[in-house]
Amino acid sequence: MSKIILIGSPNSGKSLLFNRLTGLSQKVANFPGITVDVGSGKLQALPDKTLIDFPGTYSLQAISAEEEVAVDYFERALEDPDVEQVLCVIDATRLEKSLLFTLQVIRDCERNSKKITVLANMMDVLENHDLTLDVEGMSAALHTRVIPISARSGKGIDEVISELSAIACEVREPRAHLVDTPDAILRGEAHKLAHRFGPEGDVLIRTQNRLDNFFLHSLTGGVSFFLIMYLLFQSIFTWAAPVMDAVEGSLAWMADALVPLLGNQVVKDFTSDALFSGIGAFLVFVPQIFVLTFVIGLLEDSGYMARAALICHKPLRLFGLTGKSFIPMLSGVACAIPAIYAARAIDSPRKRVLTYIAIPLMPCSARLPVYTLLIAAFIPAQTALGGLVGLQGLAMFGIYFFGMMTGLLVTGLISRTSEDHHNDLPFVLELPPYRLPGLKPIVRNAWNRSKHFVTKAGKIIFTVTVVIWLLGYFPNYGADLGQSWLGHLGHFIEPVFSPLGLDWRYGVAIFTSFAAREVFVGTLGTIFGIEGADENMVPLVEHIQGSDLALGSGLALLVFFAISLQCVSTLAILAKESASRSLTLKMFVGYFLLAYAAAVVVYQVTGLLVG
Which span out of 248-257, 344-353, 527-536, 594-603 was modeled with the highest average pLDDT? Predict the structure, then answer.
């Protein structure tokens, strides 16, 4: 099967074009460093051809770990005889920046006798501002075909497909004046080409500057940043609540309809206690994961994320980090694994390691079901301003803020106690143009992220739920949970968690959650389901409220889950990316001890305050 390489600089619309050509749901975001690995997929129109999407890079002289991935794969791919063509995507609105990289790619393609086609993207933006690009003139100057396209609207895609479906042209002989041209001369050539063939006027720059004057202003920029982050966490409750209620009602209806039809008592108890009470309790919180991913996608695709990174650079420097650490850290709010990959874009190795240390304390979506469950159980659902502001939303914002600040304090302490390096690379960040987010790919990505979360976590939760149910149901068939195998195990580990005011049931849930944080909800659902086997399915929140769990214990659980590192997958990826098992082990043990100590303090202080 023939291969086609797709390469381009960050923010050129390359990944969006890849999705349009292949139909795959690769993540698209308007920030350098989001695409951090090589993706591939069959062309929808040409199933016999595979399109390979490389990470965006500004130059073939790699600086960051992310660029090293792109350059290394690209150089090896050019030596692959199955690669028949290279598609180089350029941003027509920022021609000079794109052309330097394009000339480097053309030079390497000619050295390896590979055909290359340049795709001038963002043509819809130029048309909206009555600007033009001399495509024919630039094509003649580059000695390479240039096709004007818009990955967002789909304009020019048919022409690209026709180009790819055509019979391979004759092999191009390398031209000496390009093959041996150094980058310094290519830089000057890119400037000349952009001035000669690019759009005239500074309409786009003026528009961007007007918005930057607001979003990057010392006053309005800080206020808008705080409000945007606050709305991000408020939306988790306000937007997802109707869907959560619908899911909960549907599960209750299914349980009432299905369970009575089952004849065997053991099967009936398993379906009610393990499936609906255990796994069902976890599924209720999936809409919040969708909303969280959707809002982050809007911020990324609009171009605001880069501004947020710039705003955060100065305060993050106080903790030994960089503005580029903000994107991996905020990505960690969705999932720590892609956040660790995104840290490749950080140029400084030292700051990259510090970012690795901070990421596990970012409140990821796996913590979200735990947070939501505990907040709903202990925080009243009071709202103000017509429902725009809620007490539970404030609590969610508070625990998210607590986790992030703890991560910053830890990295700040480590950066000051470890050896300081003065040869770190300077902070350089491209500010992409503001763009209206494409809702379709964002919704699709949020849906896929939620589906992936369910399928990935679902396997673990199902396995743990079945084991918990078997241990809690036998040998007395659920007659006395305390005398079951699970009860004996819980009483054995109860002394570890009793300083937090937690009985053996919560100790078992914490113990199983070390496989994955979200298992905590499924385990509690199974345990309470067994205890209430004679009743209909009742929401887990009501069970917790009826278990006489103290407020101090609930807050201690929130703090414990905010700090502890309870994700096997994150540990595996962290060890691989950092190339240090020692660092991974130290983080796992250190965060557990810190989480336990902080939870004990919170429990004791709350007890003193509320009695």
Answer: 594-603
In SS3 terms, 248-280 reads as HHHHHHHHHHHHHHCCCHHHHHHHHHHHHHHHH
Among residues 362, 383, 378, 336, the alpha carbon closest in space to that of 241 is found at 383
Of the candidates 456, 424, 226, 438, which has an alpha carbon nearest to the alpha carbon of residue 336?
456
144, 268, 425, 542 from 525: Cα distances, Å: 62, 16, 50, 11
Smallest CA-to-CA distance from 118 within 27, 17, 41 is with 17
* Nearest-10 crossing angle of helices 183-197, 95-111: 130
Cα separation, 365 vs 371, in Å, equals 10
List the chain domain ranges. Answer: 2-201, 220-232+289-417
pLDDT of 389 > 90? The answer is no
For residue 535, count other CB atoms closer than 10 A to its CB.
9
The answer to whether the predicted template modeling score (pTM) of the entire model surpasses 0.90 is: no
Distance CA 181, CA 198 (A): 23
- What's the distance, Cα to Cα, between the start and end of the chain in Å? 71
**Residue with the two structure tokens 């039809």:** 261
146, 138 contact by CB (below 8 A)? yes
Instruction: List the CATH code of the domain at 2-201.
Output: 3.40.50.300
Token readout for 554 is: 């609930």
Q: Residues, the chain, total?
A: 611
- Neighbouring C-beta atoms of residue 581, cutoff 10 Å: 12
Please answer whether residues 49 and 42 qualify as being in contact, where contact means their C-beta atoms are separated by less than 8 angstroms: yes
Which value, to the nearest 10 degrees, does the dihedral of the CA atoms of residues 392, 397, 403, 408 take? -160
User: pLDDT digits over 122-145, tens only?
Assistant: 898 888 888 888 999 999 888 889
Say how far apart CA 332 and CA 317 lie, in whole Å. 19
